[in-house]
Amino acid sequence: MTVTLPSRRTLATSAERRLNLDNINPHVKAAKYAVRGELAVKAEEYRVRLSEGDKSLPFDSVIFANIGNPQQLDQKPISFFRQVLSLLENTALLEHPEALRTTFGYQQDVIDRAKVLLADVQSVGAYSHSQGAPVIRNSVAKFIEERDGFSANPQDLYLTGGASSGVSTLLNIICDGPSAGVLVPIPQYPLYTATLSLLNAQCVPYNLEEEKAWGTDVNAIRENLSRAKAAGTDVRAIVVINPGNPTGASLSAEDIKGVLDLAAEEKLVVIADEVYQTNVFTGEFISFKKRLRQLQQEVSGKYDNVELVSLHSVSKGMVGECGHRGGYFELVGFDPEVAAQVYKYVSIMLCPPVIGQCLVELMVNPPKEGAPSHELYQKEYNGIRDGLRKRAFALYEAFQRMEGVECQEPQGAMYLFPTITLPAKAIEAAKAENRAADEFYCLRLLDATGVCVVPGSGFGQKENTLHFRTTFLAPGTDWVERIVKFHSEFMAKYN
Amino acid sequence: MTVTLPSRRTLATSAERRLNLDNINPHVKAAKYAVRGELAVKAEEYRVRLSEGDKSLPFDSVIFANIGNPQQLDQKPISFFRQVLSLLENTALLEHPEALRTTFGYQQDVIDRAKVLLADVQSVGAYSHSQGAPVIRNSVAKFIEERDGFSANPQDLYLTGGASSGVSTLLNIICDGPSAGVLVPIPQYPLYTATLSLLNAQCVPYNLEEEKAWGTDVNAIRENLSRAKAAGTDVRAIVVINPGNPTGASLSAEDIKGVLDLAAEEKLVVIADEVYQTNVFTGEFISFKKRLRQLQQEVSGKYDNVELVSLHSVSKGMVGECGHRGGYFELVGFDPEVAAQVYKYVSIMLCPPVIGQCLVELMVNPPKEGAPSHELYQKEYNGIRDGLRKRAFALYEAFQRMEGVECQEPQGAMYLFPTITLPAKAIEAAKAENRAADEFYCLRLLDATGVCVVPGSGFGQKENTLHFRTTFLAPGTDWVERIVKFHSEFMAKYN
């Protein structure tokens, strides 16, 4: 029998408790993370109300366009990946290969791959090496070599629980106290500012150039760097998100060189967040590692000591397996003694999820041409890629129809980040609610349509500009039309 | 074609690099984590050498008795768990229920459970709510209610990537700077001291009483607390590991009351690490939550404001699925504003691995009596439990045969933590190598036998005592005999 205690016990005041908002870690309190903030919480409340049959809302579904969560929306997992994972989870299935093939359509390469991975990890229920299982790191190294044309060493690779935990590890190593600073693009994925807040380190922002398709302007970075140094900040690293989040922008070889020049001259560690490397619509993805190695070949000396870390993940791309929390980072040019500290740091949390590690292996080593699973894999992969592109452009075209909305042509990642120009009356109404104008707009959008997006202020934006970030993952066009209709009514109301 | 660059590029000196051992985060540098330290690295090197056919070593296998990693050794996963997980990974399997039943022996409750979980998480590849999927938290709350006889609220539950990440979250919230202190048992699982180092907070140690079967002595805790307070430390919390790691000790109702009295009187948050709650050989496991609720019923007022957090995990017990990184913690009596900060903190890392969350659900809600999978589940569960007990006592008996080794009778967890008394000459030999004597002993043991254990200094021990921690997970008795033989030769050499 379960006893529920009298409620007086929940009536303790903050002052009576040991922990309250005024005495916990102030750096946790200071951290901001809008992607899962007030709007997301409200959207979830609406979802629950709808699922409980509430008919009082002016929409019949909630669209979570606030977060790059492909499989929450339309995206189906890639069969080859999930077939292998099912065998890793239940190795007893391997005892009946004939039934796997005939009834369930598992190809021989699915079965073979599961056996290779099991030979290395023993069981996905066992801890692995803290840097990740050796065979999986070998595959990642091979993938990087093939992508870039330059060698990669498995010992420099660290598998992670999604790229987020990798970023956290790296910033924990790099930041040595309140004077340490890291250059972060604006707009940015708020993981960076939140983690720097937690570490009580300085975010040194640099603006991306919206009018130049959200590219980098190295001169502007230099200016901000000088200003930060003059103010006593010990700037140690620069974050580049390529392709960009929330902007979707893909950097050119020249832009990347600009950042590497700066890194070499100013001795900055480069943190290259490359999780959207396969989500590229225009141009091609060039990794920072490849560009660095090219420059090291071309120019003697200058780039030799550049320290670079590149992050990747199973969460994005055509994989979209964010719930599995898999990823890796590669250290390039790091001091071995520092790398040993990175190892110690990650070993405290023992190891990243082993099934997520296996998924990293499958992502970097998919069925090759001629392999039994190749055709289905390629079909599914292309289907996801084409669907993303189609939805991105449909959304972009809708934005073009909207008064006061300007948007760069989709380039990559999973997001659009349009500028919105709001009427003065709307800005006043926001002030009256003590809110940023873009936040006010996004809240009204959610209340009216069930579509959840994130205000630009959650990522940072140039002063006196307003934006919002939306994914283009949700299926169909109904939700896009909801936005169009809301926007025109909103503008009419406040104009 | 892959280009390997000339090696001069790896010859940059520490001083030329941006990051070196002298300028990275000093708190990372200060952190110690022996479970995966020098000995573990050396053991892994031996394992690789053996696997490559090296015949020069005096042993033919490495026994990783340094870490509670059951499935790396003999322990098989529980079939019901893995069957459900295989369906979650590949939902296409659900399209052929007949083949699942007849060829693969999946019972109907396996299929049903997979469908219930999928209805909640949608896909194990999608991010979940940052606190964990709602249906899974409901199951955990029900489990706690049935275990304790007191109500539990799913909103107070936070699913985690193993208990380790939960501990990290909590200490990040609690510690507000260098004067913050947390009482930690000695010996302890080094996650606590390592995380406090990272946070630059104070570890306030309190000794467990080896002669009282590693129980707590509240008077001794009080003394240490007073001393720490007098030295200016703001002691905020007390960690209790029950059943103990590395000691295996199970606390009595009276011991638990003693800690709760102290917490109530001194306003300390209680962090109850209860991951070994099903690994109990003698007596019964009593949760801190249950004892707290009992005291709140029995005594008016005194315990009303106690803040307690209890942690659990899929890594230990008869589950042993540490590679899946699943766990949870429950906040009891916390200020809702503080709980909101915990939510924000965990949301920065998005969500714990979803397949690990599903495994938490299966652990807390296994097939009940009468359910089709119950019999097999119970048989496997009991088999693991009995095997652990048998191996624990076999190891204990071996220790009793060894000169200068004293060991408490096995009580629980997965470890024994014997005291060793070493000859003066051995202690001198250790000093000559600039090593602690227990570390010296464990290194010689590894070099001679391939058995990897962790020196007591990795967990902390009373001054002038020496210990080591060994798991009792490895199958067979050969490795135990290797230890016995080594020990007698070691003692002969240094006596």
Automatic annotation (TrEMBL), chains A, B:
Q: Which InterPro entries does UniProt cross-reference here?
A: ALAT1/2-like (IPR045088), Aminotransferase_I/II_large (IPR004839), PyrdxlP-dep_Trfase (IPR015424), PyrdxlP-dep_Trfase_major (IPR015421), PyrdxlP-dep_Trfase_small (IPR015422)
Q: Which CDD domains match?
A: AAT_like (cd00609)
The processes (GO biological process) annotated in the record are: L-alanine catabolic process
Which is an annotated GO molecular function term of this record? transaminase activity
Q: Does the keyword Transferase apply?
A: yes
Decide whether keyword Transferase is in the record: yes
Alphabetically ordered keywords of this record: Aminotransferase, Pyridoxal phosphate, Transferase
The text of the family note is: Belongs to the class-I pyridoxal-phosphate-dependent aminotransferase family. Alanine aminotransferase subfamily.
Record text on subunit structure and interactions: Homodimer.
- The protein in question is named Glutamate pyruvate transaminase
Query: From what organism does this protein derive?
Result: Aspergillus heteromorphus CBS 117.55
